[in-house]
Amino acid sequence: MIDRSGTPLVEMRDMQKAFGGIRAVDHVTVDLHPGEVVGVLGHNGAGKSVLMKMLSGALMRDAGEIYIEGEQADIRNPRDARRYKIETIYQYLALADNLDAASNLFLGRELVTRTGLLDEAAMEAETRTIMGRLTPNFRRYNTPVSGLSGGQRQSVAISRAVYFNAKILIMDEPTAALGVEESQMVAELIDELKKQGIGIFLIDHDIHQVKQLCDRASVMKNGKLVGTVDVAEASEDDLLSMIILGKTPERLGA
After folding, report:
1. What distance separates the 2 farthest-apart alpha carbons in the chain?
2. How far is 158 from 185, CA to CA, in rounded Å?
3. 67/51 Cα distance (integer angstroms)
4. 224-230 and 10-19: which strand pairing?
5. 141-158: b or e for each residue (b if 16 or more CB lie within 10 Å)?
6. Please, are residues 54 and 78 in contact by the beta-carbon 8 Å criterion?
7. Does 197 have pLDDT greater than 70?
8. pLDDT tens digits, residue range 13-56?
9. pTM, to two decimals
10. What is the 3-state secondary structure (H, E, C) of 40-65?
11. Which residues are CB-neighbours of 179 under 8 A, at least 6 positions away?
């Protein structure tokens, strides 16, 4: 059970973003607590990705405020977001296909010896430690990531974020194009992240996956927030109705 009595890990208040005359995000407020997964749902063009890009620093907001653990955050670019321990796991993973897990985990942040050489042994040891904690069955440490399955690639990307102390993850359709077993692997990974108190915003349009992976769902339509509901109390039909009709069922607190 998620404790929502304390200060949210993330609170986005009255967020706004327009492109020309189109309001992509129109006065949206959402929050996220430690150890919680909040699904951000909606059709293409609903505004869910734009909202999350403002949190990740990929887009500047026109108006609104972001609070991280109760403190107002100044996020203008991805570097600022990382300073607040926010990391994004994109659907098309930003991994170097020709490099192995350790090289990808430390890409751009390599460990070096006192003499300035790459400390490959230390990077592999650290990779084995973090990935062993998150995905105990992972064994293919020396294989280029191009040879890994989709779920294994996800585990490399997520391990990289967690190793560098992410507290807040934005995940973009993490099970897209994965089979049943691979999707289950990602679900187990998300469970482990929750146990560590990491909060996750999960962008998706697959209602079944949101029901399986999320604690709450924030549904958007035409840039506006339709509502945020407890996933355990909402049926798949409820969520579909919110996406299509733009209304929260009365019994869910509309």
Report:
1. 66
2. 12
3. 14
4. unpaired
5. eeebbeebebbbbbbbbb
6. no
7. yes
8. 999 999 988 999 999 999 999 999 999 999 988 999 999 999 99
9. 0.89
10. EECCCCCCHHHHHHHHHCCCCCCEEE
11. 150
Across the beta sheet with 224-230, the strand order is: 86-89, 168-172, 199-204, 37-41, 216-221, 224-230
Continuous segment of H or E residues that includes residue 209 = helix 207-213
pLDDT at 214 over 90: yes
* DSSP label at residue 6: S
* Alpha-carbon dihedral angle through residues 163, 165, 170, 172, given to the nearest 10 degrees: -10
Neighbours of 211 (CB within 10 A): 16
What percent of the chain clears pLDDT 90, i.e. is strictly above it?
A: 60
Cα→Cα distances 96→143, 159, 243, Å: 12, 15, 36
Nearest to 28 by CA among 58, 48, 6: 48
Tokens of 231: 């996933």
